[in-house]
Design goal:
heterodimer, A: 248 residues, mainly alpha, 2 domains, 74% helix, 5% strand, elongated, B: 111 residues, alpha+beta, Arc Repressor Mutant, subunit A, two-stranded antiparallel sheet, 5 helices, disordered N terminus
Chain lengths: 248, 111
């Protein structure tokens, strides 16, 4: 195998695992440098070019086991990599509950304070619509934020797409059984089997899909296509008179 | 046998890397060469395996790295942190304890 092929394949496999781009690039650069050093060593030993490539391939080791070793060692370097079930299955629903209770308590206190400062005659939270909008806003922003936070955490801890998807499914499962209901003079956060609101179920899955797509899209290709459209198609000249990408 | 021994035996590459980097900072290829020369090629491993080990040690804050430009090439040099030095001392002490115990048993069998 040639150096370029090996390094490209290594980068592709690490990126597919959901590694942060910076770490993939760093690993590829180091392995590439190492490969060059091995080639130089082979040359010093008087090997012919084919033998140099074989020498470097043998010395650098098997690609699959190298990827496996990288993946395992980086995951084990993080607490959540060693305890992925706790981190990405149990913690997201707890985080959602904490989010709702925390922001709910803060909103209630801020409303009370605001009412006192302005000397309002009625309690600030006496409006049903205001309570409904605030409760739903806290719930929905929580769903997006917590799902996005755990996706980010999974990537930073080298746990990859698998565990970021699991965290999103945990949030979606939470959305399936948790119900926020607002009635006159009451706000309820309850768990149970009932007709679910589809938004809390779908929102974390949308976040998971967006994170996955964002990481897998080829930005260079997209930029090239965008530039082609912006420059080539924007030219006032007839197609046969244009140079490359609408130039002269 | 002490419960920590299997873990300790798994940590041999960690001990070797920390020991070699305690002397001076090195980059990956240099480190592999040093291991092979000093051990008289007793260890056989895919040389790419050194990088997961180095990255793991860096994540544990036992090593730090810095980019150095030399001879038209940019290399990532690794060096030991104070925390790494402490870890090295404890690993080396543990290694000596186990090696002594194994030596005593092997010595008794050969006697």
């Amino acid at each position: 195998m040639r150096k370029e092929e090996f390094v490209q394949e290594l980068s592709k496999k690490l990126a597919r695992l959901g590694w942060p781009t910076a770490q993939v690039e760093r690993t590829a650069r180091e392995v590439s440098d190492h490969w060059e050093d091995l080639e130089n060593e082979g040359r010093e030993q008087g090997l012919i070019p084919d033998a140099i490539a074989r020498f470097a391939t043998e010395r650098i080791g098997n690609l699959e086991s190298l990827v496996g070793l990288h993946d395992e060692s980086m995951r084990k370097a993080h607490w959540c990599g060693r305890h992925p079930v706790v981190s990405f299955v149990l913690l997201p629903p707890i985080a959602l509950l904490v989010w709702f209770l925390g922001w709910g308590a803060m909103a209630a206190a801020a409303g009370e304070l605001y009412g006192k400062l302005l000397g309002l005659q009625h309690p600030f939270w006496s409006s049903f619509v205001l309570v409904l909008i605030t409760a739903k806003a806290i719930e929905y922003t929580g769903l997006f934020s917590i799902a996005a936070l755990f996706c980010w955490w999974a990537r930073q801890s080298f746990c990859g797409f698998k565990w970021s998807w699991i965290a999103c499914f945990a949030c979606a499962a939470h959305g399936l059984v948790s119900h926020v209901t607002v009635h006159a003079h009451s706000l309820q956060w309850a768990y149970g089997v009932a007709v679910p609101d589809l938004f809390p179920v779908l929102a974390p899955l949308v976040v998971g899909a967006m994170v996955h797509l964002q990481e897998r899209l080829n930005y260079r290709l997209l930029t090239a296509v965008a530039l082609l459209f912006l420059t080539g198609c924007a030219s006032p000249k007839a197609t046969q008179e244009r140079g490359w990408i609408g130039g002269e | 046998m002490n419960k920590t021994n299997p873990e300790f035996l798994n940590g041999v590459p960690e001990l070797l890397v920390l020991q070699l980097l305690a002397r001076r900072e090195m980059y990956g290829y240099e480190l592999v060469k040093e291991i092979l020369v000093r051990s008289k090629a007793q260890f056989r491993f895919g040389e790419g395996c050194i990088y997961p080990c180095l990255h793991w040690l860096e994540k544990q804050r036992l090593l730090t790295s810095r980019q150095v430009e030399a001879g038209g090439r940019s290399r990532l040099y690794y060096r030991l942190t104070p925390r790494g030095r402490k870890r090295l001392e404890s690993l080396a002490a543990e290694w000596n304890r186990v090696a002594e115990g194994v030596g005593l048993i092997l010595g008794a069998q050969h006697a």
